[in-house]
Amino acid sequence: MKAIFFTDLYPVEDSRSASGTTFAVRELVEGVSSCGVDVAAVVRFFPILTRKGFQFSSKKTLINGIWVIDTPKFGVGLVMNTLLTRLFLRRFLRVEGGEVAVCHMSSCFFAAYKVFGRQFSRWVFVLHNSDLKSRYLDWTVQHADTVLTRSSALSRQFELLAPSARVDGVAYSGVPNELFRERPPAFRPGGVLKIVMASVFIPLKNIPQVLEAIALVSKEQAVEVNIYGDGPLRDALEKMVSALDMQGYVTFHGFCPRAHVLDAMHAADLFIMPSAPETLGMAYLEAMSQGCVVIGHAGWGVDGIIEDGKNGYLVHSATVAEIKHKILEYCASDIERIHAASYRAALSYTSESSIKNYYNLIAGVPC
């Protein structure tokens, strides 16, 4: 099977930055390529008007054996100059017929479909969190042959938004088998509760509420907090830690290599990220694969993988009081049982299983 992927969620750099994109989609595409899918190209559309001014030049970059094409999209919103967009894109890309188009995000589907129409044998749309408020969503669902979402929680959100909409499958991500590391839980009542956080520092991650909740917990339970990541809220968060007198047990590490963060997760008891909205959140699965128990947000991301109180915890709103309650609920729980349940749940989400699932969804045959 030959496929062309259209997505802006495909980084070409080697590591993530504060303004960068996660590697989840790239890992899926590279994975199905290794399974035998002929990935003709990954196309990334960009607007002609950016902060740097007008950008017209296309370019083609080879990343791990896959051509990544950056090309301008001419137009605004639902009004698009198909001819100009096609002229620039076809310098690097030819559709021979019979290929499958896989589009992550409705804006990419809209642009690709306008350029190529029914030249592809099948159009696959993969819905992400930001699509729920996209002006392109209704149009995309009407024209897609296959509609996928990135998580079960996102499927439910989509069905609430559009009860008559169909979802043909979930294109989830997973953790490589070789990275899984089970360990006996370290936390004991009266000991130090080790908490790890890892994310981009943006409002939807609800980091200020988590910090305030931890500050309250620290009055009755010794804690140690390691925070990985960066972003626009970095200065405000550091000032908040100082204002709450948390410097003695909270450490900011910035963005670190994946292996370093996994080691920190392996050494921690709890991973806390009650972000909403959230597409999936690979960090949850990575933490669970290292023996952590996670606190997420009900209705988003990891909901559906996590069952509250059974293999992790979910807050229904990211308030200080509810986050604090879940932390203390963990401290009073059957620690060994919940850690074992968390690890077992993660074992169903390996990268190998996610790649086979992705392959089946876009190709319809086993990998």
Describe the structure.
With 367 residues, the chain is of the alpha/beta class. The chain folds into two domains: 2-174 and 351-363, Glycogen Phosphorylase B (Rossmann fold, 3-Layer(aba) Sandwich); 178-346, Glycogen Phosphorylase B (Rossmann fold, 3-Layer(aba) Sandwich), CATH 3.40.50. It has twelve helices and 18 strands. It has an eight-stranded mixed beta sheet with strand order 5-6-2-1-9-10-11-12, sandwiched between helices. Strands 15-14-13-16-17-18 form a six-stranded parallel beta sheet, sandwiched between helices.
Short description:
The N and C termini lie close together (11 Å).
Q: What percent of residues are in strands?
A: 15-25%
Coarse shape:
elongated
Please give the radius of gyration in angstroms.
22 Å
CATH hierarchy: architecture of the largest domain: 3-Layer(aba) Sandwich
Number of domains: 2
What structural category do the secondary elements indicate? alpha/beta
Count helical runs.
12
Q: Main beta sheet, described?
A: 8 strands, mixed
Spell the H/E element sequence.
EHEEEEEEEHEHEHEHEEHEHEHEHEEHHH
Q: Write down the CATH topology of the largest domain.
A: Rossmann fold
Number of strands: 18
User: Termini distance?
Assistant: 11 Å
Strands in their spatial order, largest beta sheet = 5-6-2-1-9-10-11-12
Mean pLDDT: 91
What's the CATH class label of the largest domain? Alpha Beta
- The CATH superfamily of the largest domain turns out to be Glycogen Phosphorylase B
